[in-house]
Amino acid sequence: MNTPTTLPTEFIEKVKQILPSDELERFLQVSTQPLKRSIRFNSLKSTQQDMRLVSNRHNWKLEQIPWCPQGAWIEYQHQAPLGNFAEHLTGQFYIQEASSMMPPIALKYAMGAAKLGSVLDMAAAPGSKTTQLAALMNNEGALVANEFSASRIKGLYANLVRCGVTNTALTHYDGRVFGEYLPEAFDAILLDAPCSGEGTFRKDPDAFKNWSQRAVDELSQTQRDLIDSAYKALKPGGKLVYSTCTLNLEENQHVCAYLLQKYPDMAVVNLSELFVGAERSATNEGYLHIWPHHYDSEGFFVAAFSKAEKEMTEKNSFSKPMPAKFPFTKASKKQQQEILQYLAYFGELDISDSSFWLREREVWLFPNKLTELVPLMKFDRIGVKVGEQHKKELRVTHEFAIAYGHQAAQKLDLTAEQAEAFFMGKDLSNSSNYKKGDLVCCYAGVALGLARITGNKLKNKLPRELVRDQGLTFN
Ligand SMILES: C[S@@+](CC[C@H](N)C(=O)[O-])C[C@H]1O[C@@H](n2cnc3c(N)ncnc32)[C@H](O)[C@@H]1O
Predict the structure, then answer these.
(1) Would you call 442 a catalytic residue per the annotation?
(2) Which of 105, 228, 260, 337 sits 20 to 30 Å CA-CA off 35?
(3) CA-to-CA distance for 107 and 240, rounded, in angstroms?
(4) Where are the alpha helices (DSSP H) in 32-166?
(5) Is the predicted pLDDT of residue 232 greater than 90, yes or no?
(6) How far apart are the C-alpha atoms of 442 and 319, rounded to whole Å?
């Protein structure tokens, strides 16, 4: 048998101890094959029907991913990378590895009929699962996306904006603090833990560069600390999903065993029926240990837990007042009405679960459920920045326009050529009947951004950092 040289011998020896011997050859074989590409349609921006049209237009061959209704393996002839397609730029799909779609689906499954009301994504960047969770929540409720690494926050934020996510607050903490800062605050928690990445080697040839047993052991300790914190931040009756993209027992089953032993009120939610064929990866405990050869994907591990209900005797900690230093004030009823009037060109805005908040000239839209958490922790960014007030005008931000613009009353549907020019930062001619103010430029029903009407011209208001000079694929 040929052993791929990229895998360290010590790792293969460990695999031999846990993988049935008749599967080893298949595992090693698949390990040398390139990873299939996959995408997830973002239901906040597109319907299945829209995406069928898009895939026909581009001649994409899609194969349904069994565990994720919005996920598909994709084959196409085009030379361009998927990230250059218009539908990627407009957040209609997210490039996400198939097995990485499983943890949010497992969390929804564990919740049963209950809503994903308040959710913590404890290790969130670059946001594949945060954007997936926001879509599963239909942008409702409250989603806290935390990332410890400062350099990864920017990418996370950009993905939230691109995908039209509005129900999320960003935090920048070591995940170990949540148990203390937000005890029993969340209905559901996803801990997609930092790990040794043994499952990612088909995509990343450097995956084993820093691999060592010592690194595995150290990560296993971090994961225990994080799952401990997640347990404490979970409401009684709440659900927790723990996932990694690694294959060893120390970072997976042993971390789960630690949780169950330390907290007897935690029980496993059996995932062996999560989807048709899941039993192939199911462990005796009810976790999914996905070897790359099972579904021709990356390796992954997913476990779900339920925290026992308890009688609520203590006073709910959320009745705390806003901290004195919180720089926002809630807009008064009159101000809320005025803001809605400014935003009339967006049509009927459904903001029933949100409120406008003000900071100097800035106007923000915060989901009400998120503001309940504000007294307890410092948030970097909450909800969506609506705009800034300049004299009598409210200058609306790009992020608000693309999250709420598809239903705008004052909008213009662009052709493919116009949309391409728009992404290149060019001004367009005003072919609409609108005479003044801003309008939302849309392509195939999705908002691209704002343009200012100046006579017979539309002045492009796409933020500079989003302007693409080349490499766009519209057809
Ligand atoms: C597996 S990645 C998360 C991938 C992400 N959930 C997604 O689907 O796009 C793990 C993340 O945990 C972050 N991280 C590392 N140590 C952490 C800690 N102590 N607390 C919170 N996050 C941490 C890493 O920077 C990394 O972004």
Answers:
(1) no
(2) 105
(3) 7
(4) 48-58, 86-89, 102-111, 128-136, 150-162
(5) yes
(6) 42
Is 150 annotated as contributing to ligand binding? no
Residue 152 in contact with ligand 1 by CB distance below 6 A:
yes
Residue nearest to atom 21 of ligand 1 (CA): 175
Q: Tell me: is residue 128 an annotated ligand-binding position.
A: yes
Provide the phi-psi class of 458: left if phi over 0, else alpha when psi is between -120 and 50, else beta.
beta
The residue type of 321 is P
**460-473 mean pLDDT:** 89
Structure tokens at 343: 């935003």
Reference 197, options 152, 131, 243; nearest CA is: 243
Residue nearest to atom 19 of ligand 1 (CA): 174
Q: Read off the pLDDT of residues 4-31 as tens digits, 9 standing for 90 and up.
A: 447 899 999 999 999 999 999 999 999 8
Q: What is the dihedral of CA 94, 174, 118, 283, to 10 degrees?
A: 70
Pick the CATH number of 410-466 from 2.30.130.60, 3.55.40.20, 3.20.20.70, 3.10.180.10: 2.30.130.60
In CATH terms, are 9-95 and 410-466 the same topology? no
3 lines ligand 1 (CB under 6 A): no
Exactly one of 68, 163, 195, 245 is catalytic; name it: 245
| 232 C-alpha to ligand 1 centroid (Å) | 19
- Reported as a single tens digit per residue, the pLDDT across 341-393 is 999 999 989 888 999 999 999 999 999 999 989 888 899 999 999 999 998 88
Q: How far is the CA of 241 from the centre of ligand 1 (A)?
A: 14
Backbone CA torsion sign across 27, 31, 33, 36: positive
Task: Tell whether ligand 1 has an atom less than 6 A from the beta carbon of residue 453.
Answer: no
| Mean pLDDT over the full length of the chain | 93
Selected from 3.40.50.150, 1.10.3720.10, 3.40.50.450, 3.60.130.10, the CATH number assigned to the domain covering 101-307 reads 3.40.50.150
